[in-house]
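Q: How would the structure tokens look for this protein?
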Amino acid sequence: MFICLRYHAAHGRSTNIASRQPVGVRMMHILLVEDDPRMVRFMKRGLEAEHHTLQFARDLDECLMCLSTTQFDIVIVDVYLRHADGLEICQAVRHHGGSIPILLLTAHATCEAASRCPHPAITDCLAQPFAFDELLEKISTLVSGALAKSWAAWNGPDQHTTVTP
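A: Here is the predicted structure in token form.
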């Protein structure tokens, strides 16, 4: 028999002692394609504090290697990488990963400008700089939407089950 105990975490959320994961929060496995070590540290620290796991790649080859060995809930790609084109990486991820959500990070254009010329490989974008809570909200929304679509496809078109993210 396994007994699960809860305690009140310092930041005010109930937490499962066995996993230290907040109750009702889904742990996500995230691939970050980023070549700036400061951004990688920032994202790793923040996402792991929220009980998600983060793997990172610096270029297309590393990204494809990660995708071939691990299943991710979402891929986050910086549009401007020193030795790679973020949009090409998004296309390769879409080709390899089917419907996996892809969040494009852009520092040189607003998301409104990016949305005027949508790229079929990109699920959504986030303009830098951004508040970390904004990133978490975007990730949660994209992954929840992908899960709902996946469930609907699995459930079949003639079923009337509603999935709320």
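The chain has one domain: 27-146.

The first strand starts at residue 6 and ends at 8.

Upvote if useful.
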